[in-house]
Amino acid sequence: MRNHMRFDVMTLFPALVDSITNESIIGRAKRAGIIEVVCHDIRDYSADKHRRVDDTPYGGGRGMLMSAPPIYRCYEDIKKIASGKSLCIFMSPKGKILNEKTVKILSSCDSLILLCGHYEGVDRRVIDKIADMEISVGDYILTGGELPACILIDSVSRLIDGVLSEPECYENESIASGALEYPQYTRPYDFMGDKVPDVLLSGNHEDIEKWRKEEALRLTMKNRPDLL
Questions:
Q1: Which of 89, 101, 123, 155 is 20 to 30 A from 167, alpha carbon to alpha carbon?
Q2: Do residues 220 and 213 make contact, with C-beta atoms less than 8 angstroms apart?
Q3: What is the pTM of this model?
Q4: Are strands 190-191 and 194-195 parallel, antiparallel or unpaired?
């Protein structure tokens, strides 16, 4: 595992990314210096006096496209300070679906540069020039790439040493373990007539572990048989 990771986010809405990544576990990791999330406002790289970053698409069509020059200038600035193994990722519904295998690969990088699209998309030429890969977080459309970028930052950051207290915190969780996680319970013992399984109160760790594996398999077969 790595013990430091930097994310450079190219976006039109840096405050949105900051508001999410400043909270909870990721926020604590940022404040501890384990991860860095640096937002770059693409509007700052516009040559237009009104900081315009979009234009109408050639060939017609609805909506506006993000222009290539401001994005490329932003990328060039980031590359000047990037060090070690770095990848540029375009958050796009056209990309490969993000999964735990990809997350582990990305966590081996020293830094990731994330491009967040908006409007009707991004001029294809700048994607072809700078992006090492395109990643989607699911088969649905969002208004921009900021939320997907935050999902990627969160999932990758969890694998950076020191972000979570123990490796077990992610190794045995759903998907990461290769199956869905077993059910978990806490007090009260009896909730509206639904009681905690007796095996969890037995103190027999071998029986508890066996029960957890069986329940994980049962849930995986029921909800995500494709994982098996």
A1: 89
A2: no
A3: 0.90
A4: antiparallel
> How many domains does one find in the chain?
2
Q: Which residues span the domain enclosing 176? A: 172-227
166 — pLDDT class (breaks 50, 70, 90): confident
What confidence score (pLDDT) does residue 94 get? 94
Report residue 68's pLDDT band, with 50, 70 and 90 as the boundaries.
Answer: very high
Residue 175: count other Cβ atoms within 10 Å of its Cβ. Answer: 17
Q: Is position 162 within any domain?
A: no
| Ramachandran angles phi, psi of 197, nearest 5° | -55, 135
Residues paired with residue 6 on neighbouring β-strands, in sequence order: 36, 111
Residues 66/46, Cβ–Cβ less than 8 Å: no
pLDDT tens for 88-104 read 999 999 999 999 999 99
Q: Is 52 helix (H, G, I), strand (E, B) or coil?
A: coil
- Mean pLDDT on 22-37: 97
Cβ–Cβ < 8 Å for 17, 11 = yes
Domain's final residue, options 157, 185, 207: 157
One-letter identity of residue 84? G
117 found inside a domain? yes
Q: Is 74 exposed, middle or buried (0-12, 13-18, 19+ CB in 10 A)?
A: buried
Q: Do both 92 and 38 map to the same domain? A: yes
User: Which pLDDT belongs to residue 167?
Assistant: 67
**CA 8 to each of CA 21, 22, 24, 112, 158: distance values in angstroms, whole numbers, following the listed order:** 12, 15, 20, 6, 17
* Predicted local confidence at residue 37, as pLDDT: 98
Cβ(132)–Cβ(126) under 8 Å? Answer: no
